[in-house]
Design a protein that fits this description.
260 residues, alpha/beta, five-stranded parallel β-sheet, 9 strands, 13% strand, globular
């Protein structure tokens, strides 16, 4: 038996399908995942990371922001503690990934408390095998190796990756901020280029601002030490991230930024 639908019922069915399709598209909006250390995500009390205010510069009706950075982590421990597994398992095609590491990598990798976070310097494929007290073995790689792992695995899931150089510390020499272009900042750029990711020189963009401000003004952003910013300082870095994205129109995230 054929059932004839009136024009009114047909319109209602079409409207329902349209609403369902719109709801599906809304649920499928891309996510910007952010990984890093305390300068990206912190307690949001006295010390703030730029991964919190960055949401103020994106149209969050069109893109979601998921700040998965964690204080005290290096590239090595972010993986070792299973944090990367959590992020990469959530990433889907069309998503984005920001990463900024470098503040916690500097110690010599060993089984001491100080060496727990350390990695090999540079971008080499060299590694060192550690044996912990319980007999567990761990292979430690270079800073660049870990970054390239993040990049390649995220790209394999269909995500767009943007690597950031570490924010500058409140350290001046001869009236200028000390930069990381010859160390972790430079290695981050090289890793991004080698693995086919976009790069934002966050270190240089913010350092340029600090140079103009001068030591006395910059000091206001660092209430406790020379590494961690307050909310105002975190916003300066968030703005620098946005500036870096705008400097490269090829980065697809530009279409999700709020208009100036």
């Amino acid at each position: 038996m054929k059932i004839k639908l009136t024009a009114g019922k047909q319109l209602l069915i079409l409207a329902g399908l349209f609403i369902a399709l719109a709801a599906f598209k809304l649920q499928e909006k891309p996510t910007l995942y952010i990984i890093g250390d305390s300068t990206v995500r912190n307690s949001n009390q006295e010390q703030w990371g730029w991964g919190t205010p960055i949401a103020n510069y994106f149209d969050t009706t069109k893109i979601s922001i998921s700040n998965q950075a964690m204080a005290g982590r290096s590239t090595r421990t972010f993986i070792k503690e299973g944090r990367w597994d959590k992020v990469i398992s959530s990433i889907k095609k069309g998503d984005f990934l920001f990463m900024q590491f470098g503040h916690n990598e500097g110690s010599k990798p060993d089984t001491s408390r100080a060496g727990y976070r350390g990695v090999l310097k540079g971008l080499s494929n060299d590694s060192v095998e550690l044996t912990w007290k319980d007999g567990t073995k761990e292979v430690v790689h270079s800073y660049g190796w870990y970054l390239k792992k993040f990049i390649s695995e995220a790209k394999a899931k269909g995500a767009t990756v943007v690597v950031m150089s570490m924010i500058p510390r409140n350290e001046f020499k001869d009236g200028k901020v000390i930069r990381a272009s010859d160390s972790y900042g430079g290695w981050a750029k090289q890793a991004a280029e080698a693995a086919g990711a976009y790069f934002v020189d966050l270190n240089a963009i913010t350092a340029d601002k600090y140079d103009k401000m001068g030591p006395d003004e910059v000091k206001k952003y660092f209430p406790g030490d020379h590494t961690h910013t307050n909310a105002l300082g975190a916003d300066v870095n968030a703005q620098s991230v946005v500036e870096g994205i705008r400097q490269n129109p090829a980065i697809p995230l530009n279409k999700y930024l709020l208009q100036k």
